[in-house]
Amino acid sequence: MKYAVFFLICILLSVVAVGQTKIVCVGASITEGARTTDPRKDSYPAQLGTLLGNNYEVINCGIGSRTMLRKGDHPYWNTDQYKIALSSNPDIVFIDLGGNDAKLQNRVYMDDMEQDCIDMIRSFRNLPSKPRVIVMLPFVSFEPDTTQIWDKVLVEQITPRLQSAAYKENVEVLDMHSLLIDRKDLMPDNIHPENEGSAIIAKRLFDQLTLKTDKGFDIFKGIKSPYTISDFKGYQCADFKIRGREGKVVKPKQAAQGKPWIWRTRFWAHEPQTDIALLERGFHLVYCNVAELMGNKEALSIWSDFYKLLTKAGLSKKSTMEGMSRGAMYSFCWAAAYPDRVNCVYVDNPLLDCRYLADKPEEDLGEMTKDFMAAYNLKTKDDIRNFKGNPTDKVKDIVKGKYTILILSADQDEAVSPMQVTLFEEKVKTQGGDITVMVKKGFKHHPHSFPNPAPIVDFILKATYK
Asked: Taking phi first (over 0 means left), then psi (-120 to 50 degrees means alpha), and beta for anything else, what does residue 314 get?
């Protein structure tokens, strides 16, 4: 605490250099640097300042135990740090509050969370400096005591309310929960990151501030069909019809230069960590529901019209294709037909060869098998065995695009044999294709993705900006 007070006094006495961008970090003990060696240089605001350099001033206005809730046990609203944050008239504000609100004594006021967050956002946006406001979703908690900062409450009650507030106020929102979800080793007391954990946080904020964007771009202006707006995890989503099919386009708060996008081919909003992480980084997220068509010619025709709508509206000529399970069938059918329209392909526990469906008993023929047979006019199991339209049959066309392929494969997948991935990988490499397989050891078909999507995101970013 004495370090925080000393630091704030220094801020008040300092003179800001001409031309500096002023950043305020609002938050509780993680912001303050509670478990770092020396908060003055090891807290994430301090490390962010080091990364940004002399053109920025980063002010740490964190103070332990504080809540976003006005009725919480220790409201941030009543602190000197809040007053200092406002009086500094910042250019950029990071708001990291919500963790302490998960404590049992604060949960009774949870219905106030969204409005309190909205009011907090507005209190800064109404300043003369009109700052850019970025809401940070709560960090993961490994605390076993369910009366304390319980992760279930963070995920199911607090995060959706903060996302809704960010959506209504149209401010940026960062998913900090996944950032350290696989790094319990960096949180020695189960709550607070130490020096290295704080460095990871600082780097994520640095990347957000240095993202190159096209601020004037708004894809919604290019959608000529009537549409409605819905909330997707804090982002605006345009919902409309194209050839009678459900279409969705989610736009980032600021579009990245080049207007990159990720195309979710099936299972909208399932395990959306990668989609959210890319939205944060300026990607658009799109979806067109052709669920029962399994990537056949009709599906590709509808998607071709969807693609033309998106690219005419300004998106890049190449997309990242994302397919989970049978979504891989859709992704690769498109990629084989239009290799010049693909930036990279990411598939997860993928269905790559439908011929195995012929081995199922008649009474076990599920909806997917029936859709597959109808989509390709297959009448018998022999028709399935002789089918030649699988991704494994289209490798020669797939590799023509020279795009990179990422496959996540669970080694205990009970729904789709991992052997399909092995055979597909061998075929792609034989044809000179660029493919990476990440094996999820000890996992079954579900869950898809990674709790921390960083390896997937890094792969897609590298493919996009190569």
From this structure: left
